[in-house]
Design brief:
The protein has one domain. It contains four helices and no strands. With 70 residues, it is mostly helical. The protein starts with a helix and ends with a helix. The protein is elongated, with a radius of gyration of 22 Å.
């Protein structure tokens, strides 16, 4: 437990004393949000939900795609 507290304090003190690092982390977090939230909506539609009506049809499709050799 003491090691975990030392690790936490190491990172906490490091982030607290940053000046430009905080801005860089903010930019990184904004870019991650754009990549995972915004782009997912437009470029990665839910293929299984749109092409199949029930969970059984979806599961059969996935099993067939995984087990059928090409």
């Amino acid at each position: 437990m003491r090691v975990i507290k030392k690790i936490f304090n190491f990172y906490y003190e490091g982030f607290r004393s940053m000046t430009i690092g905080k801005t860089l982390w903010l930019i990184i977090l904004i870019k991650l949000f754009i990549m995972f939230a915004i782009l997912k909506i437009f470029f990665f539609p839910n293929f299984l939900k749109t092409n199949f009506n029930s969970d059984e049809e979806r599961s059969n499709y996935v099993i067939e795609r995984l087990t059928t050799p090409k």
